[in-house]
Protein backbone atom coordinates (compact mmCIF):
# COMPACT_ATOMS: atom_id res chain seq x y z
CA UNK A 1 0.00 0.00 0.00
CA UNK A 2 1.36 3.41 -0.95
CA UNK A 3 1.82 6.04 1.72
CA UNK A 4 -0.98 8.56 1.29
CA UNK A 5 -2.95 10.87 3.51
CA UNK A 6 -6.31 12.54 3.72
CA UNK A 7 -9.54 12.09 5.66
CA UNK A 8 -13.14 11.32 4.72
CA UNK A 9 -16.28 12.13 6.70
CA UNK A 10 -19.60 10.61 5.66
CA UNK A 11 -22.63 12.79 6.44
CA UNK A 12 -26.19 12.05 5.38
CA UNK A 13 -29.23 14.35 5.33
CA UNK A 14 -32.22 12.43 6.70
CA UNK A 15 -35.18 14.52 5.61
CA UNK A 16 -37.57 12.57 3.39
CA UNK A 17 -40.11 11.69 6.13
CA UNK A 18 -41.02 8.51 4.23
CA UNK A 19 -40.15 4.85 3.80
CA UNK A 20 -36.95 6.08 2.17
CA UNK A 21 -35.78 7.06 5.66
CA UNK A 22 -36.03 3.48 6.86
CA UNK A 23 -34.42 2.03 3.75
CA UNK A 24 -31.56 4.51 3.86
CA UNK A 25 -30.81 4.18 7.57
CA UNK A 26 -30.91 0.38 7.56
CA UNK A 27 -28.81 0.17 4.41
CA UNK A 28 -26.27 2.73 5.63
CA UNK A 29 -25.95 0.96 8.97
CA UNK A 30 -25.26 -2.38 7.27
CA UNK A 31 -22.75 -0.81 4.89
CA UNK A 32 -20.84 1.15 7.50
CA UNK A 33 -20.76 -1.82 9.88
CA UNK A 34 -19.42 -4.03 7.10
CA UNK A 35 -16.49 -1.69 6.48
CA UNK A 36 -16.13 -0.34 10.05
CA UNK A 37 -16.46 3.26 8.86
CA UNK A 38 -18.05 6.08 10.93
CA UNK A 39 -21.08 7.94 9.60
CA UNK A 40 -23.23 10.87 10.61
CA UNK A 41 -26.89 11.67 10.06
CA UNK A 42 -28.44 15.13 10.13
CA UNK A 43 -32.15 14.71 10.77
CA UNK A 44 -35.02 17.19 10.45
CA UNK A 45 -37.67 17.52 13.13
CA UNK A 46 -40.43 16.48 10.77
CA UNK A 47 -38.58 13.30 9.89
CA UNK A 48 -37.61 12.51 13.47
CA UNK A 49 -41.20 12.97 14.63
CA UNK A 50 -42.67 10.83 11.84
CA UNK A 51 -39.95 8.16 11.66
CA UNK A 52 -38.73 8.03 15.26
CA UNK A 53 -38.56 4.24 15.36
CA UNK A 54 -36.39 4.18 12.23
CA UNK A 55 -33.88 6.50 13.92
CA UNK A 56 -34.02 4.68 17.25
CA UNK A 57 -33.27 1.42 15.45
CA UNK A 58 -29.81 2.70 14.46
CA UNK A 59 -28.99 5.33 17.08
CA UNK A 60 -27.04 3.00 19.38
CA UNK A 61 -24.65 2.18 16.55
CA UNK A 62 -21.13 3.02 17.86
CA UNK A 63 -20.06 4.24 14.42
CA UNK A 64 -22.94 6.77 14.23
CA UNK A 65 -23.01 10.45 15.15
CA UNK A 66 -26.29 12.39 15.12
CA UNK A 67 -26.73 16.04 14.18
CA UNK A 68 -29.75 18.17 13.41
CA UNK A 69 -31.05 19.64 10.14
CA UNK A 70 -33.48 22.20 11.66
CA UNK A 71 -37.09 21.26 12.42
CA UNK A 72 -38.76 22.21 9.13
CA UNK A 73 -35.76 22.36 6.78
CA UNK A 74 -35.70 26.17 6.92
CA UNK A 75 -32.71 27.71 5.17
CA UNK A 76 -30.34 29.65 7.43
CA UNK A 77 -29.39 31.93 4.52
CA UNK A 78 -31.04 32.81 1.21
CA UNK A 79 -29.49 31.27 -1.88
CA UNK A 80 -29.48 32.53 -5.45
CA UNK A 81 -28.40 29.82 -7.85
CA UNK A 82 -27.06 31.23 -11.10
CA UNK A 83 -25.39 28.45 -13.08
CA UNK A 84 -25.08 30.53 -16.28
CA UNK A 85 -25.34 27.47 -18.49
CA UNK A 86 -28.87 27.97 -19.80
CA UNK A 87 -30.17 24.72 -18.34
CA UNK A 88 -33.12 24.60 -15.91
CA UNK A 89 -32.45 24.21 -12.24
CA UNK A 90 -35.04 22.88 -9.78
CA UNK A 91 -37.66 23.33 -12.49
CA UNK A 92 -36.80 26.95 -13.17
CA UNK A 93 -34.66 28.64 -15.77
CA UNK A 94 -32.18 30.14 -15.88
CA UNK A 95 -31.80 31.01 -12.17
CA UNK A 96 -33.27 29.90 -8.84
CA UNK A 97 -33.87 31.92 -5.65
CA UNK A 98 -34.83 30.44 -2.28
CA UNK A 99 -35.28 32.75 0.69
CA UNK A 100 -33.76 31.97 4.06
CA UNK A 101 -35.53 32.20 7.39
CA UNK A 102 -35.69 35.21 9.68
CA UNK A 103 -33.53 35.23 12.80
CA UNK A 104 -36.64 34.50 14.85
CA UNK A 105 -37.49 31.51 12.65
CA UNK A 106 -33.94 30.21 12.78
CA UNK A 107 -33.84 30.46 16.56
CA UNK A 108 -37.13 28.60 16.83
CA UNK A 109 -36.10 25.96 14.30
CA UNK A 110 -32.80 25.15 15.98
CA UNK A 111 -33.97 25.42 19.58
CA UNK A 112 -37.06 23.27 19.03
CA UNK A 113 -34.97 20.69 17.23
CA UNK A 114 -32.45 20.54 20.07
CA UNK A 115 -35.31 19.93 22.49
CA UNK A 116 -36.89 17.29 20.25
CA UNK A 117 -33.64 15.33 19.99
CA UNK A 118 -33.17 15.52 23.74
CA UNK A 119 -36.75 14.37 24.38
CA UNK A 120 -37.00 11.58 21.79
CA UNK A 121 -33.43 10.32 21.59
CA UNK A 122 -32.17 11.37 25.04
CA UNK A 123 -28.88 12.71 23.70
CA UNK A 124 -27.25 16.13 23.52
CA UNK A 125 -26.95 17.26 19.91
CA UNK A 126 -23.72 19.08 19.04
CA UNK A 127 -23.88 19.00 15.22
CA UNK A 128 -25.91 20.73 12.53
CA UNK A 129 -26.08 20.88 8.76
CA UNK A 130 -27.67 23.94 7.16
CA UNK A 131 -30.49 23.10 4.73
CA UNK A 132 -29.27 23.47 1.11
CA UNK A 133 -25.84 24.76 2.23
CA UNK A 134 -24.42 28.22 1.51
CA UNK A 135 -21.55 30.00 -0.19
CA UNK A 136 -18.79 30.62 2.39
CA UNK A 137 -20.90 29.05 5.14
CA UNK A 138 -21.66 31.52 7.94
CA UNK A 139 -18.55 33.71 7.82
CA UNK A 140 -20.80 36.71 7.18
CA UNK A 141 -23.47 35.79 9.75
CA UNK A 142 -22.26 36.14 13.35
CA UNK A 143 -25.90 36.60 14.34
CA UNK A 144 -26.68 33.05 13.22
CA UNK A 145 -23.47 31.73 14.78
CA UNK A 146 -24.63 33.26 18.06
CA UNK A 147 -27.86 31.28 17.84
CA UNK A 148 -25.90 28.09 17.20
CA UNK A 149 -23.57 28.81 20.11
CA UNK A 150 -26.48 29.55 22.44
CA UNK A 151 -27.98 26.16 21.55
CA UNK A 152 -24.81 24.16 22.15
CA UNK A 153 -23.88 23.47 18.52
CA UNK A 154 -20.14 22.79 18.08
CA UNK A 155 -19.64 21.37 14.56
CA UNK A 156 -21.56 22.42 11.49
CA UNK A 157 -21.78 21.76 7.77
CA UNK A 158 -22.91 24.95 6.03
CA UNK A 159 -20.07 25.86 3.62
CA UNK A 160 -21.50 23.86 0.74
CA UNK A 161 -21.80 25.95 -2.44
CA UNK A 162 -19.55 27.74 -4.88
CA UNK A 163 -19.55 31.43 -5.81
CA UNK A 164 -22.62 30.88 -8.05
CA UNK A 165 -24.50 29.30 -5.13
CA UNK A 166 -24.16 26.12 -7.19
CA UNK A 167 -21.79 23.17 -6.96
CA UNK A 168 -19.19 21.74 -6.63
CA UNK A 169 -17.71 23.40 -3.57
CA UNK A 170 -13.94 23.71 -4.14
CA UNK A 171 -11.75 21.34 -2.15
CA UNK A 172 -9.74 24.38 -1.09
CA UNK A 173 -12.62 25.00 1.33
CA UNK A 174 -11.31 22.99 4.27
CA UNK A 175 -12.61 22.78 7.87
CA UNK A 176 -12.04 25.91 9.97
CA UNK A 177 -13.12 27.45 13.24
CA UNK A 178 -15.17 30.67 13.20
CA UNK A 179 -12.48 32.46 15.21
CA UNK A 180 -12.58 35.71 13.24
CA UNK A 181 -16.32 35.97 13.91
CA UNK A 182 -15.85 35.45 17.66
CA UNK A 183 -16.94 31.80 17.80
CA UNK A 184 -13.73 29.81 18.06
CA UNK A 185 -15.68 26.89 19.55
CA UNK A 186 -17.69 26.30 16.33
CA UNK A 187 -16.05 24.18 13.63
CA UNK A 188 -17.14 24.49 10.00
CA UNK A 189 -16.73 21.15 8.22
CA UNK A 190 -18.08 22.14 4.83
CA UNK A 191 -19.18 19.84 2.02
CA UNK A 192 -16.42 19.49 -0.52
CA UNK A 193 -17.52 18.64 -4.04
CA UNK A 194 -21.18 17.81 -4.63
CA UNK A 195 -23.94 17.38 -2.06
CA UNK A 196 -25.09 14.19 -3.77
CA UNK A 197 -25.10 12.20 -7.00
CA UNK A 198 -28.10 14.12 -8.39
CA UNK A 199 -26.23 17.42 -8.02
CA UNK A 200 -23.29 16.00 -9.95
CA UNK A 201 -25.70 14.90 -12.65
CA UNK A 202 -27.00 18.48 -12.94
CA UNK A 203 -23.73 20.44 -12.72
CA UNK A 204 -20.74 18.34 -13.74
CA UNK A 205 -19.09 18.95 -17.12
CA UNK A 206 -17.91 15.31 -17.25
CA UNK A 207 -14.24 16.32 -17.37
CA UNK A 208 -13.38 13.41 -15.05
CA UNK A 209 -15.50 10.85 -16.87
CA UNK A 210 -19.08 9.96 -17.67
CA UNK A 211 -20.13 8.71 -14.24
CA UNK A 212 -20.31 10.03 -10.69
CA UNK A 213 -17.96 7.21 -9.73
CA UNK A 214 -15.33 8.62 -12.11
CA UNK A 215 -15.61 11.96 -10.36
CA UNK A 216 -15.41 10.40 -6.89
CA UNK A 217 -12.29 8.40 -7.72
CA UNK A 218 -10.61 11.48 -9.20
CA UNK A 219 -11.34 13.40 -6.01
CA UNK A 220 -9.89 10.57 -3.92
CA UNK A 221 -6.59 11.15 -5.70
CA UNK A 222 -6.76 14.84 -4.85
CA UNK A 223 -7.62 14.16 -1.20
CA UNK A 224 -4.73 11.73 -0.85
CA UNK A 225 -2.15 13.79 -2.74
CA UNK A 226 -2.95 17.02 -0.87
CA UNK A 227 -3.87 15.48 2.52
CA UNK A 228 -7.33 17.06 2.48
CA UNK A 229 -10.55 16.54 4.42
CA UNK A 230 -13.53 15.46 2.31
CA UNK A 231 -16.99 15.67 3.84
CA UNK A 232 -19.00 13.36 1.57
CA UNK A 233 -22.73 14.05 1.49
CA UNK A 234 -25.85 12.14 0.46
CA UNK A 235 -29.60 12.10 1.24
CA UNK A 236 -32.34 9.63 2.11
CA UNK A 237 -34.09 10.17 -1.22
CA UNK A 238 -35.64 7.30 -3.15
CA UNK A 239 -34.23 4.49 -0.99
CA UNK A 240 -37.60 2.90 -0.26
CA UNK A 241 -36.00 -0.24 1.17
CA UNK A 242 -32.59 -1.72 1.89
CA UNK A 243 -32.38 -3.43 -1.49
CA UNK A 244 -32.97 -0.12 -3.27
CA UNK A 245 -30.32 1.53 -1.11
CA UNK A 246 -27.70 -1.00 -2.18
CA UNK A 247 -28.77 -0.73 -5.82
CA UNK A 248 -28.41 3.06 -5.83
CA UNK A 249 -26.54 5.17 -3.26
CA UNK A 250 -25.03 2.21 -1.50
CA UNK A 251 -23.21 1.22 -4.69
CA UNK A 252 -21.14 4.38 -5.06
CA UNK A 253 -20.68 4.81 -1.31
CA UNK A 254 -19.28 1.29 -0.95
CA UNK A 255 -17.00 1.62 -3.97
CA UNK A 256 -15.74 4.93 -2.58
CA UNK A 257 -15.00 3.30 0.78
CA UNK A 258 -13.15 0.37 -0.78
CA UNK A 259 -11.03 2.58 -3.05
CA UNK A 260 -10.24 5.02 -0.20
CA UNK A 261 -9.09 2.16 2.03
CA UNK A 262 -6.84 0.86 -0.71
CA UNK A 263 -5.28 4.33 -0.94
CA UNK A 264 -4.68 4.61 2.79
CA UNK A 265 -7.18 7.42 3.31
CA UNK A 266 -8.66 7.39 6.80
CA UNK A 267 -12.27 7.80 7.89
CA UNK A 268 -13.21 10.05 10.79
CA UNK A 269 -16.34 11.32 12.52
CA UNK A 270 -17.14 15.02 13.04
CA UNK A 271 -16.75 14.77 16.85
CA UNK A 272 -13.34 13.11 16.47
CA UNK A 273 -12.13 15.64 13.92
CA UNK A 274 -13.37 18.40 16.20
CA UNK A 275 -11.37 16.99 19.09
CA UNK A 276 -8.29 16.65 16.90
CA UNK A 277 -8.48 20.23 15.66
CA UNK A 278 -9.12 21.65 19.13
CA UNK A 279 -6.09 19.79 20.43
CA UNK A 280 -3.97 21.04 17.56
Automatic annotation (TrEMBL):
Q: What InterPro entries does the database record attribute to this sequence?
A: Glyco_hydro/deAcase_b/a-brl, NODB_dom
Q: Which residues form a coiled coil?
A: none
Pfam families reported in the protein's UniProt record: Polysacc_deac_1
Organism of provenance: marine metagenome
Q: Which residue ranges does the record assign to the NodB homology domain?
A: 29-137
Q: Which GO terms describe its biological process?
A: carbohydrate metabolic process
Q: What is this protein called?
A: NodB homology domain-containing protein
* MF terms (GO), sorted A to Z: hydrolase activity, acting on carbon-nitrogen (but not peptide) bonds
Amino acid sequence: MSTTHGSIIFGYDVESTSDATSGFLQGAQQLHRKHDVPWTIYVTGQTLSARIEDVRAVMDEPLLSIGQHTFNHVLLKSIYMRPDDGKPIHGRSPNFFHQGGTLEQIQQEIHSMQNLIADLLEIECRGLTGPWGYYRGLVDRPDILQILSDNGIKWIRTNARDYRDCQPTPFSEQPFFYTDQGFSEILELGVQGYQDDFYWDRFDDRRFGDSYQDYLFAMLEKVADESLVWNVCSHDHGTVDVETFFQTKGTWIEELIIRAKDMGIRFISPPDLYAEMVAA
